[in-house]
Amino acid sequence: MEAIVKTDFHFPGQKGKYTGKVRDVYDIDGKYLVMVATDRISAFDVVLPEGIPYKGQVLNQIASKFLDATSDILPNWKIAVPDPMVTVGHKCEPFKVEMVIRGYLSGHAWREYKAGRRTICGVEMPEGMVENQKFPEPIITPTSKAAAGHDEDISREEIIAGSIVSEEDYAQIEKYTRAIYKRGTEIAARMGLILVDTKYEFGKKDGQIYLMDEVHTPDSSRYFYADGYEERLSRGEKQRQLSKEFVREWLMANGFQGQSGQKVPEMTPEIVRSISDRYIELYENITGERFIPAEDSAAEDEILQRISSGVSECLGSLE
């Protein structure tokens, strides 16, 4: 299958289009969103030059499964999945924070800890911890949603004091964050995985809080394999990860970290195919189901026509 890295649809009722790093989002009458998970891939805040076949389908279908698996906790934005690469849902007014929750001392939190800091986003971290160790209780470390550039760490107190989110709403999304993460960790455990950390986005529609965006995908979450976790921790070894960290590692090994003057290494067909295979492996490990490609082989125009037809039919049923 050819990778889909660009879309330019004109759906009935379309009011606008937003192009993100990896997704194209179409506004329908100010009421609905059509989110196309393209095959673009980003790392270090840079969109890489080659698309990854099936990546969009993998992420869209994982997110869809976890939205369904958490819909009893709170409503979510999803209405339908008219194509393996597309979700149609409610347009909500997003809160201008991302709710990051961490069950383990990894990634950004570990880098802060290693630098000697014991507070992150106003949350105290215990003394004497080692990389990838489990926190006594999961911690919530929000980030502000930047219109451009990097998101920034922010504390609960700063969010409320700055009226970014009201105290009442923040208390509620904090509660939802813990409940969704708990559900995610339970599902991961059944798959032999550890949900290390993840992030959620919330919004409001008609006064009701909704869960938005993608949930528990390898692009928004970090997973470890549970088998061997304790042994590796005790020996100070790296954990076996299930995330797109392998893409970052390949880039770093080839001299690229998104810094000025650095050049993205050549993405040969073999590299692209290996990344595609890893995303399919991620899907099967996270969901416990075999990945079924939308098409065994299809030209770009055929895939785009498939998406256009499926979405147009879906939107027609919402009128």
Automatic annotation (TrEMBL):
One protein family per Pfam: SAICAR_synt
Cellular component GO terms held in the UniProt record: cytoplasm
Catalysed conversion reaction: 5-amino-1-(5-phospho-D-ribosyl)imidazole-4-carboxylate + L-aspartate + ATP = (2S)-2-[5-amino-1-(5-phospho-beta-D-ribosyl)imidazole-4-carboxamido]succinate + ADP + phosphate + 2 H(+)
Residue ranges crossing the lipid bilayer per the database entry: none
Gene3D superfamilies reported for this sequence: ATP-grasp fold, B domain (3.30.470.20), Phosphorylase Kinase, domain 1 (3.30.200.20)
EC number(s) recorded for this UniProt protein: 6.3.2.6
GO biological process: 'de novo' IMP biosynthetic process
Keywords tagged on the record: ATP-binding, Ligase, Nucleotide-binding, Purine biosynthesis
Protein's pathway: Purine metabolism; IMP biosynthesis via de novo pathway; 5-amino-1-(5-phospho-D-ribosyl)imidazole-4-carboxamide from 5-amino-1-(5-phospho-D-ribosyl)imidazole-4-carboxylate: step 1/2
Occurrences of domain SAICAR synthetase/ADE2 N-terminal (ranges): 18-256
GO molecular function, one term: ATP binding
Superkingdom per UniProt: Bacteria
PANTHER family in UniProt: PHOSPHORIBOSYLAMINOIMIDAZOLE-SUCCINOCARBOXAMIDE SYNTHASE (PTHR43700)
Family: Belongs to the SAICAR synthetase family.
HAMAP family: SAICAR_synth
Protein name: Phosphoribosylaminoimidazole-succinocarboxamide synthase
Lineage start: Bacteria, Pseudomonadati, Bacteroidota, Bacteroidia, Bacteroidales
